[in-house]
Amino acid sequence: MITKRIIPCLDVKDGRVVKGVSFVNLRDAGDPVELAAYYDRERADELVFLDISASHEGRKTMIEVVKQAAAELSIPFTVGGGIGTVEDMFQLLRAGADKVSINTAAILDPGLIEEGARRFGSQCMVVAIDAKYDPALQDWVVYTHGGRNRTERKAIEWAKEAVERGAGEILLTSMDCDGHKDGYDLALTQAVADTVQVPVIASGGAGNEQHFYEVFTKTKAAAALAASIFHFQEVSVGSVKSYLQERGVEVR
Fold first, then answer.
1. Where does the signal sequence lie (predicted)?
2. Residue 116 and residue 248: Cα distance in Å, rounded?
């Protein structure tokens, strides 16, 4: 049986880790390098580092911060934000990232997924999808530029296309649930996980240990990502893993 992964996420803006609600009202959560070292000690399975304002501000992810964080880590490390070319991917992988996550750039140029997969392998290519439910369409719509710009793409169809183009993993964030701590978007997560044959990371909405249990038992999510509840030490990675193990969910 494949074990489930618990993944803290560092959303970085102006060199600091931040966290908001539905992508707005950001508050400071600490230094990214210090938090990376902390999560390495805490037995997190992986770490995701997203420079959340890079695409919106039209600049590259901070290579130096990535290098410093990678030096602290013994666990896999995914980096995203501001990646627009295969050369950008190369620079981040060389700086110490194990995988790169692309979101806005993949929507603007879907061929970038194929280029990256050809050069570095699908295992390095994570496509992040920020999705919001549209009641009129009765479907989830993809947003770019840190949740600022609505696209015409539907999340489930885009996830399928991304995998066909070479994505080895989907990082799926529910904008509706993000930061509210009421639980993951189970319907969205299951819909995407049912459609693709690669691991899906559920993101947005974790508020307690039970939410991790629900997303792992009610959907096919391979991993669950959380930010504020870990950063502000409302729960720990260890307590989540213990809770899951006690209830029969296989974790690392």
1. none
2. 37
The CATH code belonging to domain 5-246 is 3.20.20.70
pLDDT at 182 over 80: yes
Catalytic residues: 11, 130
Tokens of 179: 């930061």
Residue with tokens 């995998």: 163
Q: pLDDT tens for residues 64-73?
A: 888 999 998 9
- pTM of the predicted protein model: 0.92
CA–chain centroid gap for 242, Å, is 22
Distance CA 90, CA 31 (A): 25
**Dihedral angle computed from the Cα positions of residues 160, 164, 168 and 169, in that order, rounded to the nearest 10 degrees:** -10
Nearest to 44 by CA among 201, 246, 210: 201
Residue ranges of domains in the chain: 5-246
3-state secondary structure (DSSP) of residue 125: strand
115-145: b or e for each residue (b if 16 or more CB lie within 10 Å)? bbbeebebebbbbbbbbbbeeeeeebbbbbb
